[in-house]
Amino acid sequence: VLQNIFMVVSTGLRNHDYIMAHNLTFKRIGVYVWLLLTIIGLVVTFIKVLDKRSNWFLVRTCGWAFFVVLLASSTVNWNRFITTYNIEACKRNNTTLDVGYLVNLDYSNIPEMVEMIGTIEGEKADWFERDLYRKIRYFTKDYEGTTWRSWSLQKQRVYDFLKNRQQEQEFRAFFERNADVELYSWLGGRY
Q1: What is the pLDDT of residue 183?
Q2: pLDDT on residue 18
């Protein structure tokens, strides 16, 4: 059990190094979740052996641990968390931000991405603005067709943010610069 815990800690440290070097992603968060569940499983196995508990104890306890971790992780808006973390980490470490990854996350990170308009330089700037424009247009088109059955507070907050930003000159200029961008080319032919 101790050797396995050592392997879990070693893997956690390597995952931390990857995050420091290449930013946070869903898979790297998944590694931490898996490692947490592995540690819980190892501790429960140690208790089972030490106290001579049944296999049912092991299955039941690990099942509840899985359920609690799954429930707790569902309360976090991971897209916004990843976006905010990566932006701050790149500012702090003076490294390159993978805007391609962030633009391809779901709509909930649109407010953070809009705040980055004008901060990306070089060849990535045009690409970033075009893809962000498509993402915003697709989201607003989808949201305006939303019925009460598919309404969510998250979508409402993003939509309200975009409506409030429409009055700002810089945001209007962003839309004017990208008015000729085809909306559906970003979707990869899904529709």
Answers
A1: 60
A2: 93
| H runs (alpha helix) in 52-122 | 55-73, 78-93, 99-103, 110-115
CA distances to 19, 80, 99, 113, 175 from 117, rounded to whole Å, are: 24, 17, 11, 7, 11
Q: How many residues comprise the chain?
A: 191
pLDDT for the residue numbered 105: 94
Closest CA to 164 of 128, 106, 115: 115
Count the neighbouring beta carbons within 10 Å of the beta carbon of residue 19: 18
Residue 71, pLDDT score: 96
Q: What b-and-e string marks burial along 65-89, b requiring 16 or more CB atoms within 10 Å of the CB?
A: beeeeeeeeeeeebbbebbeebbee
CA distance 23 to 30: 14
The enclosing H or E element of 121 equals: none
Q: Are 12 and 30 in contact (CB under 8 A)?
A: no
d(C-alpha 171, C-alpha 17), whole Å: 37
| Cα dihedral: 4, 5, 10, 13 (round 10) | 150
Q: How many whole angstroms separate alpha carbon 171 and alpha carbon 116?
A: 11
The predicted-structure confidence for 92-129, as pLDDT tens digits, reads as follows 988 888 998 999 999 999 999 999 988 888 788 888 99
